[in-house]
Amino acid sequence: MLIDQHTAAKDIQRLLSDLGWIEDEVVDKVTIPGEGNMNVVLRVHTDHRSFILKQSRSYVNKYPTLEAPIDRIETEYHFYQALDPGLKKVMPKVLAYNEDMHLMMMTDLGDCSDLSTLYNKREISADQIEELVTTLVKIHESAVPNNYPGNLALRKLNHQHIFQLPFIEDNGFDLDDIQNGLEELSLPFKKNTELKSVVEHLGERYLGTGSVLLHGDYYPGSWMQSNGDIYVIDPEFSFAGPAEFDLGVMAAHLIMITSKAENLNAVKRLYAHDHDSKLIDQFAGVEILRRIIGLAQLPLSRSLKEKTRLLKIAEGLVNL
């Protein structure tokens, strides 16, 4: 059964009862906890509690014409099972999972919002950075089970949007629809063969294998805040790979938030394990580039002059 925001409460109740996920509970209503991207996400309110239902589709929920592997929620389920116990307080808890229906039931974090608001605030506190890096360290310290999904199909889709499409001149995406003049601004980077060669190599590293449990999409859209506490969600892009990918993505967004390249050093200094500093820089550079001249745009209100500066920082990081 496929569910969405239009599914009646009585039908959700019947489904959950048939699955044995609820017993003496009455589903009162179904709401949307926030803007979903990859998956259908619903908040179910019963006469006893509220919880989250999450279901994957064979396409990206926000962009139905964009195909995506339906088993990505299996990766998310395995991620939560693999986590170090010390992370349970900053992650939602899986209450039930049905592989055939690609459906997961999770604890409700309550009234919270993601940290995408930081882009317009243009600042993030040192305490927040330290908390986010500490959480990432604990994720990376979690043991990777032998049967952990490779998640290669979803990574190939992500690979296109990170390492390929943003660097193709005629990719069918007019950046001037985002901001007048952005298309012209992007051309020097799309024509930079040396840059594109390094990006291609980094893409190969991303598609390779590794031994560290990665979140896979560690950026403000996956960071939730409630009453001053930060939670981390949406690990469907997870895989076992190089720690530097998560670190680079995180650092890239700190740079885009603050326009300060020195945030890279803060991330490296706080990270408690050995790492390849250059590789972090390069992944960070690619992430900045693809978020400004690629299809996966952010709520990033910046002038062309400001974006030019960010792109130049990114180019320097990639071509170290």
How would you describe what is shown here?
The chain has two domains: 99 residues, Phosphorylase Kinase, domain 1, CATH 3.30.200.20; 206 residues, Aminoglycoside 3'-phosphotransferase, Chain: A, domain 2. It contains eleven helices and twelve strands. The radius of gyration is 20 Å and the shape is globular. With 320 residues, the protein is of the alpha+beta class.
Brief sketch in words of this structure:
The chain has 320 residues and is α+β, with helices and mostly antiparallel strands. Helix content is 42%, strand content 16%.
Mind telling me the CATH class of the largest domain?
Alpha Beta
- What do we call the CATH topology of the largest domain? Aminoglycoside 3'-phosphotransferase, Chain: A, domain 2
Provide the residue-averaged pLDDT.
94
Kindly report how far apart the N and C termini lie: 50 Å
> What strand line-up does the widest sheet have?
1-2-3-7-6
Sheet having the most strands: 5 strands, antiparallel
